[in-house]
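Category: protein sequence paired with discrete backbone structure
Discipline: computational structural biology
Format: plain text, a pair of labelled lines
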Amino acid sequence: MKRLVFLLLPAALACAPGVAASGPAQILRAAMVKTDSCAFDYENKMLCDGVREPVRWQEAWLSSEGTNAPRWVELAFTSDVPVRTVAIFWGAENASPAASRAYAIQAWQTNAFTNAFANILEVKDNPPAARSVHTFDAVSSKRFRVLQQPGCGSAARPNGMWIAEIELYGVSKPDSEFGTTADLNAARQLRHEVRDRTIGVHRRSRGYWGRSGGIARLLMRSGWRVIQLDYLDERELGLCRAAVICSTRAIPNMHILSEYVRNGGGLMLLHDSCGRGPGSVFPDIWEYKDMAPSGRFSLAGAAHPITRGITNEFATTYGEYAVLKAGPKGTALVLDGQGRDVAVAGRHGGGRAIAIGTLPGMSSGTNWNELKSVTLGPGESAFITNAAQWLAGGSKLRDPWKKPFWAAGPMPRKTLFENVTDQCGMAYGGYSKSVAMADANNDGRLEIFATQCKIEASDPCHNLFYRNDGDWKFTEIGKQAGVQLPHGIGSAFGDVDGDGKTDLFVSWMPEMAGKRSSSALFLGNGGCAFSNATAEAGLDNLGQACVCILSDVDNDGDLDLYVAGFEQENRLCLNRGNGIFDDATRAMGLADLGAAGEKGYGGNMACGMGDLNGDGYADLAAYNRGVLHIFRNNGGKGFADVPEYMGSGRSRLSGGSIGLTMGDFDNDGDLDVYVGGRNALLRNDGDFKFADVTAGSGLDTMERNSRPYGQSFVDWNNDGRLDLFFGNGGFDSFAFENNGDGTFKDVSGAIGLDVYGVHGFNFGDLDNDGDLDFYATAWGRHPSALLRNNRDDGNALIIRIKGRKSNTSGVGAKVWVYEEPSGTNMARRLRGYREVCSGGGSLFSGASLDQHVGLGPGGGLYTVETLFPVSGKRVTVSNAVPFRILTIEEPGDTVEDEPGNGFSDLGVAVPISCTLSYAVTTNKAGKNVVLAWLNDHRGEYALLEIDPDTGKSEQHPVPEASGSAFGSLLSSRNRFYKHFGNHFYEYDPAARSFTFWTNTATGGSDNLIEDEKGVIWSISGPQSGLVSFDPGTRAFKDYGHLYKQNFVQYPGGLSMDDTGWVYWSVGKALCQVVAFNPGTGAVKPLLKEEERSLGHARIYQDVNGKVYGRARRNGEWFECHAGVALKIDGRPPMRRCYRANRGDNMSFTDGRRLAGIDLEKRVLVVNGPGPNESRRIPFSYESDGAHVMGLAAAPDGTICGGGSFPMVFFAYDPETGHITNRAVIGQWNTMNRQGSRLYAGCYTGGYLLEWDTARPWVEPRRGDTNSNPLFLGENREVMNRPHDLLPLDDGRTIVMSGSPCYGMTGGGLVFWDSMARTTTQVQHTDIIPEHTTMSMAPMPGGKFLGGTSTRPGSGGIRKAKEAELYIMDARTKKIEWHAAIFPGAHEYTDMCLGTNGLVYGLVGFVEWHPLVLKYGKRFFVFDPAARRVIHEQDTEAEFGPVSYQQGPRNLFAGPDGSIYILFLKGIARFDPASSKISLLAESPVPIVAGGEMLNGRIYFSSGSRLYSYSIPPGS
């Protein structure tokens, strides 16, 4: 409860009875408002103006909060006034009142004893109400004050005071009278009175400074009330009589400004605001023509009210002024020396506007770079004040405005860059320096780091580290991250200690209030936390440094450090490989750079590293005493000066020193250089020869007095050409767009990049939508700036490089992006060349590790080539489409658990996912979205949400994910459901998150339905697990496995009748229809045993409330109701009760339809709404890659294989380390070679393919004889899943074995004759009935040894008791011998022929199960001639299990006769001489699919990745 404490005032302040007589409650008009402080950039006293409910925080007065001092606001009058009521309307934060918790209301007392404020009353424990009203006995005084002691503010701002309005009344006015009609009319009248004496000055996106502030102060001294304008919208402009906009190139809301003036407002535009960006606001009053150099001005005449009485001559030395041309409604007021218009005024509707092309405050002879403050000459002052008076002298501003013209049509388009600083909570004001960006926690989003200088006590006390939480949400965690100190000047991200985690280097120089400090190295932990390791790294004695670069100058696989000295020499420190550095400056030939004893910024503060001559080593470009030096890197052993880089006999470039940047602006495949300060664009002509091409490029028109602190080549519009951005400190930033012909165009204001006061900056794709966003720190302690890029066309590639033998950050890697020939474009075209850099370049700006390449108009297919600096390996990614984030990893590096163990990680074989189900729906905003479940080697790992208009996508990880299933359901409540991996999930598109998940009985579901009450039901395989979920009550029920069989079941349908019974169908070996009563738990199989057969039963729900089904496609129909099945004659009614199932709805709300999702090419195919309309919309996603099913060595020396879901081919080239992916037919389970051909046995359908590696690859198509690989046919009659391929010694015959189709038992053989080009199929009944041949080994004379398996096809019933070995003559296709050698064996998993003629094999005794992927085995040696086992050994106890794949390759013979065995834990060797098995090496990853030996290495896979093992010599 609020407590009031009334205090006795001196008699001099107390009014005599009757002084404050009752009467109308009129607001007392204060003559002046004073405050202790203001949090605004300019002291913006939005008080006593009738604005009681601030919509924006700028519409209230907010005190400073940086110091622990009292806060107060005072209302002063010209004479004593009696006051009986004080009403305080509080500011609001996030729609909640920000009322002070304790304060005092005071009056000024003057008597013989004191002149001071005395309390009228004190308020304690004030509740957070929107207003506080206090009445008391009348008190008379000239000055009244509200005082708040430290810590008594609102809970959110304890040291701040936030007041929207203070109103004083001479009568008692209780709280109940506020909000009445009379009260509101009085407040409205006050607003109008205050508005008519108020001028608003636009606050640039970076705050007041210089000219705007000078004009604001001049107007205040002239008697105007000045407020700060931020938005320039109707509400804000309605608070002022006239508005002033100074130097803003891209004027926001020009349409609203036009209506403001038309409705009676006044508008003053100065300098760039006259039209330099999008043109004149009022073309009928003036037109913007151009910018001209400084000159002397004169008045056009003295007749106009603005120029009347002004006799002073105008002059300026400011870099430029705007040349205007008066329109038919305009009057020229000021002319330049050539008689051109410089200031023009005129009327527009009921209001007035004036354009002044100069920036006032520049007296003749002033050097802009040395300007410390703004001083307006007498003529300029009079001109500005006269202009303000004239603007306010027009018609009264209408209230409300007339209906604006834009209300009936679309709003004008936003600029390309939109300022989102405030809404993202990143308007951090402080004297800031450099900006670096990197994904510090490996979540796929860029974090932002910004150094702070802390020059004054009120500056932020630590560096800033913004964690990117996605969806434009950032959390500042500088202190928690451990990077708060030292106050830095430069920064660079990179992995310096080689642990794969992003580290951070921060350089220091003594600009921070003379504090002693040092540079710092922070080691990252893989999340957003760092530890200071400066001393341990040997970097605690670097001295004073500014620009810092991380680069591998000696190509030894680690990041070295180069820093530009401040008043000292530059330093090069080489990394030992473990994050410890040694000073190698002199040893590397760089001792002469930098300047000891040079004071101030000097001429050494620009340097950059990049491969300027294409030899694979990072060269150096660095300023020294104002002269640009270029040094050649001599193979990592030292640097050599290149003095004639500008041509023979020509001197080095001089002038400038603050910054440079490197980039391929002309897309010719090498690094060009732009030099800041000197304003020189240097084209790289090769072999360290550069040409200055600045003249005529458009860059030579840059304002001469600008002082760029940093510049950067960057493609902000995704047109495939590098543009140039300049951060200009105490000036507007410049943005010059690359025209593609060697020229640039100034588009700074037009695209919204004319940001004021930029110190440090960086560009990065902060929202992963394919375009580059922008973050900048401030010069002069202005707020930071965060700008969102609204390009949103997704027409780009983001490339993230991961080195292994090279440094893990990929620094020094080169990236080329080519557009492939298509349509009328028949030439391959380089779209962009990039080199990965970290730090460097300009004083406060650097490079991002992510490489962004815009792709220009047209679209198509692109090839990305990446060259790694240390290994020299080149990786090519084909068929890349925008928008896509590519992570490219260096192949061929060694994964070392222990040094020298010989294992190498070769990369992801198939970096693609697939989707088993997807749907079209709408999000919370009613916008169309596509939802797709992503599946890779991990199972279904994420739900992908895609915007079908822009392709923008977001990936939502599946909680506790494992396994996969084909079914999903989009419910009537717009929830997306899926049941897989023993889990049930609910995803809400409105919340954009998983809102429910839980464990279930084992299994996954292809069938989900929604009943009439909205309850979700799911039936899972392999043992009929039923669950239900009520979205309304959130009740989940797991009924368990309700119908168990001795085979894998495939539930095929799920329905309900109107009595509540649930029905589902079952296949494969023996179909069934099962009924279940959820109320009683009764389970009833409805088909009799004699009615069950191979295949799927079928059911459906009819609109009559009953369920109909039949045992097979042509079987008899029956009717199900209340758990009873009755046969019916003929066909049922067939009026299906359709409900959403498996995401069947593919139609968008606008009539379009989703035709497909191509995850390999990363495009949506959307048809409509017209009959012949179709679009391909690129999107991106992240994948760990498809599961590798098997691999083999091809005749061309590559390691080939196939992925599973998606079924994509891969080929790894051991020479280059490059992996190629191609589209094929089927899932390549097993492969083997014969001559120049590689044969592949493929699921589904027992496909056999033949690839002639001596001929070019031609995408395989059925029936196309020109295909290569060639589709040889389908063999579904004898097999579905091939397991082994055996080339016979006749050089023409290939034998393929495999298991049968779903539900069947016994797999046959296929014989391919490559000379006759014929196929022969042999049924299992002609081999060993009910068996499947799992493995084969060749024998002399066209014979082979076969090993069988008792397992059936998936969903089938095992009928054979134990597996056997057999010998077949391939010429006659007859069995010569067979026997169950190992009693109780279930499978001969793999066999191979040794060099000694013996066969080596693995046999298993555990019955196969589809959910078990590893089995213990017994190793054996078989003598085919004697037809007996001569050695056997149980391996599981010592070596563990082997993995199961559909085409196992666990055994192979080495050239020395040794037999190599792949276990999950590692690689073993069997010595035939000693009959002993020994473990060669324990693998760092589980060995899942193998195996092949090639050139002394064993190749295998684990999950989605390929690995190799180098066999030690002599083993």
Observations:
- The first helix runs from residue 181 to 195.
- The mean pLDDT is 86.
